[in-house]
Amino acid sequence: MFSWMGRQAGGRERSGGMDAVQTVTGGLRSLYQRKVLPLEEAYRFHEFHSPALEDADFENKPMILLVGQYSTGKTTFIRYLLEQDFPGMRIGPEPTTDSFIAVMYGETEGSTPGNALVVDPKKPFRKLSRFGNAFLNRFMCSQLPNQVLKSISIIDSPGILSGEKQRISRGYDFCQVLQWFAERVDRIILLFDAHKLDISDEFSEAIKAFRGQDDKIRVVLNKADQVDTQQLMRVYGALMWSLGKVINTPEVLRVYIGSFWAQPLQNTDNRRLFEAEAQDLFRDIQSLPQKAAVRKLNDLIKRARLAKVHAYIISYLKKEMPNMFGKENKKRELIYRLPEIYVQLQREYQISAGDFPEVKGMQEQLENYDFTKFHSLKPKLIEAVDNMLTNKISSLMGLISQEEMNMPTQMVQGGAFDGTTEGPFNQGYGEGAKEGADEEEWVVAKDKPVYDELFYTLSPINGKISGVNAKKEMVTSKLPNSVLGKIWKLADCDCDGMLDEEEFALAKHLIKIKLDGYELPNSLPPHLVPPSHRKSLPKAD
Questions:
Q1: Could you say which of 330, 340, 380, 505 is the most buried, measured as most Cβ atoms within 10 Å of its Cβ?
Q2: Beta carbons within 8 Å of 523's beta carbon, 6+ residues apart
Q3: Which residues pair with 500 in a beta bridge?
Q4: CATH number assigned to the domain covering 24-52+295-406
Q5: How far is 41 from 33, CA to CA, in rounded Å?
Q6: Quick one: 63-287 is in which CATH superfamily?
Q7: Whose CA is closest to 2, among 398, 407, 405?
Q8: pTM for the full model?
């Protein structure tokens, strides 16, 4: 067990959840610096793949990266979540956001330019300095005292244009910057406009830069209220087809459909769908703080596996180089044979093909190196990483699970997240089984005359119908027996195996709820209990 784990119990008593977070963070940082970093430095991993991780990378809040073509509503989406403007915000139908803007929490409102931002050790952006002034002049941090930003940070990216001219005019490698952010953020949200589904060349390259981060990607189909239901079905299908050509994965990406801004819906036909989708997206974002430690652990594992593979590749190239003559010819041959070398290393070390870096990019980078200056394989460094992956990670995972149980649930609060958590505008309020919860009259009473007519056609005896007769009517709903069985248990309030007229009306009401697409409650809510059974029924916990 790690030395830093021994302090967890006393620390929890002193400072609770915050100390628990610091314990996990310290464990991750310690593992990286002692086990993974030496392997990365020995084989120039930082030059080929990703800069070394710093303390701020382990301690920063969960981050969300927004990516999309211009005028798809990225900046408006942030404004929608925060419910206030932020420094540097520009919104318009033309390409307005021409910079990367890190929207973060600050006690006072203000902005920090990129050149000052990358020298701040408290911010996780120091390694972005390698992209030069052309990028840093288009990078800023916008800080403001907003409740949402106490839990998460949001990265707004420039609107993506189409065409070779726009790519060159940026003056920096846009896709490399996106890849840098993708490796460090907790969620990547791709925004699409319902009227702008084409994926330009640059957007396609940007999405490909997220290779290996598929689990972080979510898709938002924005401005969906501007089309009717039939058009929306076609738009959704076209979007999935376009994404399928770019993202080479058999799994279907989660797409959230809605209109994410604080303005009236232009088309209200799909209001219920938009509300449900918005709630699902909010829940996904709200869960990020609680899952942050697991995400950082997962990213560390992915990085360690890549560092191992990189060491095998580099050491193999070193081993194959001649001592004296023909070095350049041998270098060209090895670069050309790199796909074969990948297959050979996969077999020799039992490594999955998915752990290897992209061949073409690796070949281009290797052109700039002298293979004779590479290091030979150092088994001790590999063993240290293997030991971490085999033993240390499982111990740390257990610690994370333990801390999650002891810590209070961390949820993003404030802004748009507060508007749908309480009161009548909470999703599902007054719908399905919750209908009538705040009314004095029994909600079933309004349809009871119709249900009573059916009840008296089922041959009641002493005011009750048998299970056999009730079944004859209930199966006409065509619901499966498992559902009808649950409805029977909820409706038979006195558990006598028969239904009186109120219990039968309740059963019909529950069938209607299910047929309308709502879920049944696990136990009967107090407002649905028939009036004649309310005194005898035990109170719910």
A1: 505
A2: 490, 540
A3: 464
A4: 1.10.268.20
A5: 11
A6: P-loop containing nucleotide triphosphate hydrolases (3.40.50.300)
A7: 398
A8: 0.76
